[in-house]
Amino acid sequence: MTRDDEPHEGRTADFDVVVVGAGFAGLYALHRLRELGLSAVAFEAGDGVGGTWYWNRYPGARCDVESIEYSFSFSPEIEQEWDWTDLMPSQPEVERYLNFVCDRLDLRREIRFSTRVTRMTFDEPRAIWSVETDAGDVVTAPFVIAATGCLSAPLEPDIPGVSSFEGVSLYTNRFPKEGFDFTGKRVGVIGTGSSGVQCIPVIAEQADRLYVFQRSAAYTFPSSARPLEPSELAELKAMYPEIRRQQQASPAGAVRLSAFAALFQPSKGEILDTPYEEQLRVLDEHGWLGAFAWSDALLDIDANRAATRLYGEMIRRTVHDPETAASLVPQYPFGCKRPIVDVGYFETFNRHNVTLVDLKKDPIDTITAHGIRTREHDLELDVIVFATGFDAMTGALTRVDIRGRDGRSLKDEWADGPRAYLGLAVAGFPNLFTVTGPGSPSVLTNMVTSIELHVDWIADCLVYLRDHGAHTIEADADAQEAWVEHGASLVEGRIPSHPSCNSWYVGANIPGKTRVYMPYAGGHVSYKEQCEAVAAEGYDGFLVG
Ligand code: FAD
Ligand code: NAP
After folding, report:
1. What gap in Å lies between CA 455 and CA 436, rounded to an integer?
2. Around Cβ 538, how many Cβ atoms within 10 Å?
3. Euclidean distance between CA atoms 142 and 127, whole angstroms
4. Does the residue 121 lie in any domain?
5. Residue 379: which of 361, 392, 366 has the closest Cα?
6. Does any domain span residue 12?
7. Measured from the CB, is residue 60 less than 6 Å from ligand 2?
8. Ligand 1: residue whose CA is nearest its atom 7
9. Could you tell me if 78 and 104 lie in one domain?
10. 101, 95 in Cβ contact below 8 A?
11. What is the C-alpha separation between 545 and 542, in angstroms, rounded?
12. Nearest atom of ligand 1 to the alpha carbon of 58
């Protein structure tokens, strides 16, 4: 399809492309643009590179994918030059890696740090975006790549009295650079998602007392984190081409998912057809992962509940206090949130200095100047750690005032849930690309694999436009609707969209956010094929002008 009703003669702009964000996506985008001979500037709200791995410096922060796969595949040189020290890299190691990549590719000079993009306006007659920042910049470019991240807009918890606390308030999603010493402190952690589950065992070791405020219990599995032996690393480095090939053939964009290995092994049969004694035998043999090693556990809600009962048995075997153990068993289906990997999470509740506060039984009444008052207790605290998560997938985009054709606001367009074509572009917002946007597999995969796919697709698209003398590309509204419907059909009636699945995947953690399953559940391989087919057919479903 073409759109040729716009004059673009004599358009001038400061840059060819503005990139927003300097995490994995922004850095790779800058590199590809430079390779193509395009001028670019990146704006980054933080004062360093790394994105997720710059902001989330809480104790215990660690990747759930093996380092060898949670890394860029585009440069065999960088693969060989960088030495991973851990099988599952910690936050400082990933941050160091991204700084290394940034300097190795000399990208830093194109990034304006400590600068937040606040407004982006598409000038239709000139087909140019005007990008404004909180530092007063106004720059123009025909194209914008929003590399703003799926999990980068912190959720501000709406707990009464949150600002009245006179102790120290810490947020896992913007943890102090210098760290924090919890020694001798009375600490409360609110939130038991991935961030809470990772930091709770570490804080428990330091704090005088730790109260864990849990609204929803977590499905979490022991991490396979351990140092990499030098000989093992050498072997892995030699295998990079094969590992990368296998990643591309994997629906998760990762093959060595050691923490979840048993979930991907041949199943032990259908749990609903298996006597409980036999289920317990599988649990004895496979531990935590044995609870979900059943072919029906992710397909049938009753099977899922049976598997959760088995998972609860593992919790009861681990946590000594029966009441605490009962509270730690999740009440929602497995598979509706990203499973967590932890180091010693359940064991932490056997410590004498740790108390679980089950908010389902004893909800928070208010945060006071001196601590947290629940319906039944008044707990004095020196520190509150908020591990309360993000306005995921859409938040980073809707917090910018983005104006497309006819002054249309992206925030308004997405008020009833995000609509995007391939998760890459939005009808009415020409020349704006969203890396790992809603409607793409993103958070259901190894994100680095998804990011590379998107940035490569965008780079190829820019070459196509240049080669064809085209100035604009925009998602066609009908193609977009078909994609949104296709995405919805993949989860309809299935576990991820079960009414009891109150995950951030459906926006349930944000009061008032329309409930829509945002990631694309078709897997990396099928999604990649569809993206490639769209490009091969001259950007089918896009209007090229
Ligand atoms: P980000 O890393 O989020 O970077 C986006 C950047 O854009 C941020 O630095 C932000 O400051 C900047 N930005 C946003 N809006 C603006 C604006 N308006 N102006 C200027 N700058 C802006 N994924 C996995 O696959 N495996 C994992 O183990 C894993 N662990 C995670 C752990 C945590 C704690 C979190 C929060 C996420 C994790 N993820 C994981 C997902 C992770 O976000 C991605 O893997 C990946 O790092 C995303 O890279 P990105 O560049 O797309 O976005
Ligand atoms: P999250 O999964 O959204 O968890 C937030 C937690 O805070 C939940 O337990 C939530 O309860 C609770 N919460 C939120 N508001 C609350 C309130 N007002 N009162 C009480 N409790 C409240 O956020 P996250 O832990 O930061 O993780 C987000 C995502 O980042 C993960 O799903 C994962 O994709 C990624 N991540 C990955 C890793 C890793 O393994 N490498 C580590 C960290 C993060 P409810 O569940 O009831 O809403």
Report:
1. 9
2. 12
3. 6
4. yes
5. 366
6. no
7. no
8. 21
9. yes
10. no
11. 10
12. 34
Instruction: Dihedral sign for Cα 57, 59, 63, 67, please.
Output: positive
Ligand 1 centroid to residue 533 C-alpha, Å: 28
List the beta strands (DSSP E) in 159-238.
168-171, 186-190, 209-214, 220-222
What is the overall mean pLDDT for the chain? Answer: 95
Q: Are 107 and 203 part of one and the same domain? A: no
Pair of tokens at residue 471: 């100035």
Residue 236 lies in a domain: no
Segments of 235-374 assigned E as strands: 340-342, 354-358, 364-367, 371-374
DSSP, res 394: T
Q: Which of 335, 363, 380 is the last residue of a domain?
A: 335
The domain that contains 196 carries what CATH number?
Answer: 3.50.50.60
Write out the residue range of the structural domain in which residue 210 sits: 156-218+337-389
One domain for residues 190 and 141: no
Lowest mean pLDDT across 42-46, 155-159, 253-257? 253-257
Beta pairing class for 473-475 and 364-367? unpaired
Instruction: Give the pLDDT band (50/70/90) at residue 4.
Output: very low
Query: What is the token pair recorded at 305?
Result: 């509940």
Ligand 2 atom at shortest distance from the alpha carbon of 218 = 9
The candidate with the shortest Cα–Cα distance to 337, out of 53, 52, 152, 64, is 64
Q: Is the same domain home to 432 and 374?
A: no
- Is 461 part of a structural domain of the chain? yes
Alpha carbon distance 364, 369 (integer Å): 14
Q: Is the same domain home to 266 and 300?
A: yes
Q: Is the CB of 94 under 6 A from ligand 1?
A: no
Asked whether residue 68 falls in the same domain as residue 57, the answer is yes
pLDDT in tens, 286-321: 899 899 989 999 889 999 999 999 999 999 999 999
Contact assessment for residue 290 and residue 221, using Cβ atoms and an 8 Å cutoff: no
Site to substitute for ligand 1 among 151, 388, 411, most atoms within 8 A of C-beta: 151
Using CA of residue 416, residue 422, residue 425, residue 427, what is the dihedral sign? negative
Residues 6+ apart with CB under 8 A from 517: 487, 488, 491, 496, 497, 505, 506
- 38: helix, strand or coil: coil
Domains held by the chain: number: 3
The pTM is what? 0.96
pLDDT tens for residues 432-464? 999 999 999 999 999 999 999 999 999 999 999
Nearest to 202 by CA among 315, 57, 419: 57
142 and 21 in a single domain? The answer is: yes
Q: Does the beta carbon of 243 sit less than 6 angstroms from any atom of ligand 2?
A: no
Ligand nearest to the CA of 44: 1
Q: Give the number of whichever ligand sits closest to the CA of residue 94.
A: 1
Within this chain, do residues 59 and 99 fall inside the same structural domain, yes or no?
Answer: yes
